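[step 3/7] inverse_fold.run input=structure_tokens len=276
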């Protein structure tokens, strides 16, 4: 029997001694100059980032828009294969924020898990349960549901009250009670809103959070850890994209240093060490 997604997440974090996720968001305008002549510059850049963060990152999160906007889906697929070869214990999260119903949702799930071979995919729950179910059908693959996101406009809808309870808490409640039979569901909870994160942690101690907002978005790491860690000192997968991959202009040594610094800062502030 294949290990479940939750088991694989725990194994990745334990093996790496890390709660860090590195976002692979290669902006052509920010790529190092020495990669400009590469036939596949996004792939070359991602190889450099992966090489620089081996043994540090428990997961990698490519954002599909940076590839599809350039017609570079082949470079995305090659990057994921490279992660599999070089960092086989790390998880790959396809940040695609997919959502639809029926056969379309099933096709999106095949895209994430079969075409790209991702371990998990971000999904938008706005269309309801039937738009999320296809992403949760495989116990060894995960769906990461948008809940309380890190962007300033999140409050426009996510804070709206339904019978006195904010919508983001209704999303989390529904997801936890009705969609998580395989224990392969996570929630996106932004580090920029630690109070809301603390509420969600108290309500859902069993669910892990994918946490954007640390790094370029300026969220406070101490507040994030205080709000989001579970009783075991885990429960978070903390993502940093721009703050790591463009450190020092994308030079390998600077990328490595930035990733190691964030991993070590997280581990110093956790109540319990990750012991291999």
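[step 3/7] decode complete -> sequence:
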């Amino acid at each position: 029997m294949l290990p479940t997604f939750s088991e694989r997440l725990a194994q990745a974090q334990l093996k790496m001694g890390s709660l860090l996720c590195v976002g692979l968001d290669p902006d052509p305008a920010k790529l190092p100059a020495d990669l400009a002549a590469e036939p596949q510059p996004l792939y070359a850049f991602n190889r450099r980032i992966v090489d620089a963060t081996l043994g540090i990152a428990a997961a990698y999160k490519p954002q599909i828009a940076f590839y599809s906007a350039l017609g570079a889906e082949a470079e995305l697929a090659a990057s994921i294969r490279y992660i599999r070869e070089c960092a086989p214990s790390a998880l790959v999260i396809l940040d695609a924020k997919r959502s639809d119903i029926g056969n379309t949702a099933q096709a999106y799930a095949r895209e994430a898990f079969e075409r790209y071979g991702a371990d998990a995919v971000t999904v938008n729950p706005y269309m309801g349960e039937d738009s999320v179910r296809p992403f949760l059908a495989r116990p060894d693959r995960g769906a990461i549901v948008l809940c309380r996101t890190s962007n300033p406009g999140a409050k426009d809808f996510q804070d709206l009250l339904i019978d006195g309870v904010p919508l983001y808490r209704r999303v989390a409640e529904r997801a936890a009670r009705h969609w998580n039979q395989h224990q392969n569901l996570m929630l996106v909870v932004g580090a920029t809103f630690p109070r809301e994160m603390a509420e969600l942690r108290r309500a859902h101690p069993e669910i892990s959070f994918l946490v954007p907002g640390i790094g370029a978005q300026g969220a406070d790491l101490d507040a994030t850890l205080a709000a989001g860690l579970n009783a075991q000192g885990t429960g978070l997968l903390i993502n940093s994209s721009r703050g790591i991959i463009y450190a020092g202009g994308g030079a390998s040594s600077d990328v490595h240093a930035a990733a190691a610094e964030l991993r070590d800062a997280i581990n110093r502030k956790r109540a319990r060490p990750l012991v291999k």
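[step 4/7] annotate
The chain has one domain: 5-269.
The first helix runs from residue 5 to 16.
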